[in-house]
């Protein structure tokens, strides 16, 4: 019996968010767009010395010998696809979720197997649309080497993996925050009562973080249906009006905002239900 080969590799798994709905809405257009986006992914994979192992349906599995190259490739893919999606109507946008893991894999011919692949696939399922999710092993390798921001989402229990997986999301366009030797973010100086000791670099970092957050919120809102955009606008309108009239002394904006908040909650509950039904 031939011995199974093993090696350490960075595995990237990607698939399309709500692919079945896109196909139901427009089969020909969705298939053409999938082919075009896969060409983009293939080109960027080659640039970063990756190997496309498998593609089925809307999914892609890629193997990299370098975890740095894997994350850089994923970021470039999401940035390029976001740019292409920006010219499309909301309901025609094709957004990928990406998960990356660094682990031991089994190799048989051109195929790969094992927990290293399985964890990457589960991370992809946890990733938001247009987002990237990393395992602890990936984060440890890239956190000080790439000019990216990361958010620790904590341990997640995933299917077919015995131990919870520590997860990190990539803040696209952001930068990494200072960290302690334990890999956690340093406590904010203001929270410790030392705001006066913060230097220009700290304030610049905070300003950039706020800008990144606003940009992510803008992108998220652009991708939502008009009724969601309308609800968010009305809640924001009442909040601004509240601050202009009574400041922070009284928060009356909550009451006129309740119907719109209820509509938002209903929209997302229905969306989650549809997502579960569509697998």
TrEMBL record:
Residues 173-207 are annotated as: Disordered. The keyword Lipid metabolism does not apply. Residues 10-124 form the Guanylate cyclase domain. The chain crosses the membrane at residues 228-245, 251-270. Keywords: Membrane, Transmembrane, Transmembrane helix. It comes from the Bacteria. This is Adenylate cyclase.
């Amino acid at each position: 019996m031939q011995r199974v080969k093993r090696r350490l590799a960075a595995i990237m798994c990607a698939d399309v968010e709500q692919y079945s709905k896109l196909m139901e809405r427009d089969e020909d257009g969705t298939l053409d767009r999938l082919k075009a986006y896969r060409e983009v992914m293939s080109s960027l994979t080659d640039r970063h010395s990756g190997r496309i192992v498998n593609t089925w349906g809307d999914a892609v599995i890629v193997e990299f010998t370098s975890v740095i190259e894997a994350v850089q490739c994923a970021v470039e893919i999401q940035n390029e696809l976001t740019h292409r999606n920006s010219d499309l109507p909301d309901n025609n946008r094709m957004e990928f979720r990406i998960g990356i893991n660094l682990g031991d894999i089994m190799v048989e011919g051109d195929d790969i197997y094992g927990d290293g692949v399985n964890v990457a696939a589960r991370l992809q399922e946890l990733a938001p649309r247009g987002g990237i999710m990393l395992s602890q092993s990936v984060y440890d390798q890239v956190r000080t080497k790439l000019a990216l921001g990361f958010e620790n989402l904590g341990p997640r229990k995933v299917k077919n993996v015995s131990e919870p997986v520590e997860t990190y999301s990539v803040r696209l366009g952001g930068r990494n925050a200072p960290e302690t030797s334990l890999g956690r973010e340093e406590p904010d100086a203001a929270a410790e009562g030392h705001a006066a000791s913060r230097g220009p670099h700290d304030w610049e970092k905070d300003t950039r973080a706020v800008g990144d957050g606003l940009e992510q919120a803008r992108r998220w809102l652009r991708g939502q249906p008009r009724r969601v955009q309308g609800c968010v606008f009305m809640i924001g309108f009442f909040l601004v009006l509240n601050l202009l009239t009574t400041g922070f002394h009284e928060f009356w904006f909550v009451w006129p905002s309740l119907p719109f908040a209820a509509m938002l909650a209903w929209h997302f509950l229905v969306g989650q239900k549809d997502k579960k039904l569509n697998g």
